[in-house]
Amino acid sequence: MSEYILEMKHITKRFASVVANEDVNLSIKKGEVHALLGENGAGKSTLMNCLYGMYDSYEGEIFFDGKPVKIQDPKQAIALGIGMVHQHFMLIPALTVIENVILGLQDNKAVLDLKAAAQRFTELGKRYNMEIDPWVRVEQLSVGQQQRLEILKALYRDAKLLILDEPTAVLTPDEVDGLFDMMNMLTGEGHTVIFISHKLNEIMKICDRCTVLRLGRLAATVEISEVHNRQELANLMVGHQVELKTDKKPLNLRGERLKVENLCCDNDRGLPMLKDVSFSVQGGEILGVCGVDGNGQSELVQCITGLRQASSGKITITGVDTTHFTPKQILNLDVSHIPEDRHKYGMVGAMSVEENLILVSYDRKLFSLHNFLNWKWIAGHSKSICDLFKVKTPTIKEKAINLSGGNQQKFVVGRELDRTPNLLVAVHPSRGLDIGATKYIQSQIMGQRDRGTAVLMVSTELDELIELSDRIMVMFEGKIMGIIDQKDASRETLGPLMAGLTE
Ligand SMILES: Nc1ncnc2c1ncn2[C@@H]1O[C@H](COP(=O)(O)OP(=O)(O)OP(=O)(O)O)[C@@H](O)[C@H]1O
């Protein structure tokens, strides 16, 4: 019997003129956690999508459990025992958790007997410490919970090989630990995991081997035990030395730009999500916001950017009372917003990259002449953002949805940082970015701070928050637990506050 559960041989996948994978070989041993690493656009998701039957054509051969297979649709992949959790979840928000779990199952019994299905789902959740109420609607779940649901959904379908595409991007440190415990449990039971991640520390911690893709081709497969540090992995991925430090200039405060006073706000179900929140941010400083996902951070950002109405309290931006402003009015005060969910609030997938790059400014003089859009100017503007932020796209006319996840994030961030805003509200700005792009975007945010922008940065990446922020505000159950100076911030000082402990 083969020691490999999966062998992909000489895989080539083209999209028109783009060669996303070229002659790639990947061998996965049974029971291992195997990392797939590469820069944004290197072809990781494409390779996994070939395996999961998302495309009906690719060149090369796939062997699963020693047998040759031709996987042309996800149903075939699932039937073989392959489960995939995509970067962008494949859930239907209006349906309940259990309806999502059984959706597409051929087993009529499960469809008819929802209660029994819910019971099996709950047992599975308990077993892997990932419990979710089967009867709530998916739209009511936090991003972290939705990801747990995706994993449980794959396990419900008896996945032997689980592909996790950047699973920790949306998780808090505690949730990451929980996921790693679950992965260890799964491999202990004989499951195999392919772990796509940009987080080198996590790859070093949890993986047995790592395959590196570069520009669509195989660069190397290495044993993690033989890799000395994350710098070595970064260099292997990029093909040259990568700078992992961010420069920080001394603080130069330029006066209050954002003031939030006694803000209260309810969520869609009428539950209080913000309880008497007050703080301010000055020009020239970065105020980091940390907390376990779902503790009011999203609602706070939505209130500030006009996407949600506060039930009481006051928001002032550059001296203007914006509490009841629309998003457009707030935008016109030169407020930039890197949203939590780039697909929902940051881009229009069916539009081209260049159209997306003028979404917030198309009606300004800069891009129109006599009320008509000037596509020559727009093209020049788009190309310069794509060059600056190294957005990998065949042309600026490409539909945004066809770009890799990291490259979508790069152009959204590029568009928002292009102007020098009075206030930058950045939520998970480096989500899905490779290490080189992360460092670049962090340095750009730092540049905005040094030019006098007030930055409110929400992140679940504690290391990123501690490195970039001047002060860090911790949220728990809709309240501010404390605001800590960067010099006093550490996992030890922030951790208890994130858990709601004040002593
Ligand atoms: N449906 C598609 N149509 C056209 N081009 C595509 C399509 N899907 C992917 N590509 C292109 O294939 C290349 C590889 O993309 P892929 O999503 O596999 O990269 P990735 O390594 O997963 O990147 P990331 O880390 O940003 O998620 C990119 O240049 C991307 O634009």
Describe the structure.
There is one protein chain. The chain contains 18 helices and 22 strands. It has 503 residues and is α/β, with parallel strands linked by helices. It folds into three domains: 2-236, P-loop containing nucleotide triphosphate hydrolases (Rossmann fold, 3-Layer(aba) Sandwich); 251-333 and 421-502, 3-Layer(aba) Sandwich (Rossmann fold); 348-418, no CATH class. The strands form five sheets. Strands 6-7-8-3-9-10 form a six-stranded mixed β-sheet, sandwiched between helices. It has a six-stranded mixed β-sheet with strand order 16-19-20-13-21-22, covered by helices on one side. Strands 2-1-4-5 form a four-stranded antiparallel β-sheet, with helices on one face. A hairpin with a 5-residue loop joins strand 11 and strand 12. Adenosine-5'-triphosphate is lined by residues 15, 18, 20, 38, 40-46, 392, 402-407. This is Nucleoside ABC transporter ATP-binding protein. Keywords: ATP-binding, Cell membrane, Membrane, Nucleotide-binding, Repeat, Translocase, Transport. Residues 6-240, 258-502 form the ABC transporter domain.
